[in-house]
Automatic annotation (TrEMBL):
Comp. bias intervals (Low complexity): 246-269
Region (Disordered): 218-292
Record protein name field: Flp pilus assembly protein CpaB
Domain SAF residue range list: 44-108
Gene3D superfamilies the record matches: Antifreeze-like/N-acetylneuraminic acid synthase C-terminal domain
Pfam families linked to this entry: RcpC (PF16976), SAF (PF08666)
Amino acid sequence: MIGRNWIMLLVAIGVGLIAVVLANSYFSGIEAEQERLAEQQEVARIVVATQPLEFGTAITTENTRMQNFPANSVPTGAFFSVEELVQGGQVAIRPIVPGEPVLADKLSGRAVLSANLPDGMRAVSFPVNATTMVSGFVRPADVVDVLMTRGEGEDRIVEVIMESVPVLAIDQVANENATEPGVGGNVTVMVDQYDAQKITLARQLGQLSLALRNVENQEPGPGIAVSSRDIGSGYRPPVRTAYTEPRPSAPAAPRAPSAAPAAAPARPSGPSMTVVRGTDTADYSVDRLGGR
């Protein structure tokens, strides 16, 4: 009985080893076939994601794979080996969807917000709450206007100090796919150095608020400060229209000189008589009696 059990165990182990060898051969054959097809069809083999990669996700062999891609359309920064990519210890700093090529500009050696900043730009934070951040619906990757409220009483005014500002993070959340509203705390925006100084000073002069705007509408607003005197006044700033050069008016045609009025017929001096013939009249002089 014991010998029979050992025989069955050895047979099972042998069958398992054969299955592993056959599976490896099968997948190796598929890989070789894909490489052969890539060479024949002039396509490249690049690394793509197999699952959603959020900010800070480590790149591993489980969430990436090789995929054929047209050789003349390979994006800049693509990787041609999963092993080389994994050994670098890279993490995602921007969201990557399944099937999307893994590019160098979406990876970093460590998940830091500074890796998302273009050259010359700065990240600056200021406090907000659920009210001043549109009930918490401002999320990373949104575009906002920054408003400042300052003054007291009738001198209180609200000014738009910055327009079309990209939001990088809300508190410690920098994931663009995070759409759940938050209660606020701190908002981090991306601006240049001059605007970073403006926000830092404005934070000390008054209260900062956010106005959520359409990311596809970057037209500047009227930029007019609103004071407490404007509340209920019915005043609205004029709508901006594109300036057009006035068209020159056509010169007025010279007026023809009016004809001089016909001179009235001279009336005879002295005694006269009027003779009417139909509609015509004529005046005649009459010599005085005894006159020559």
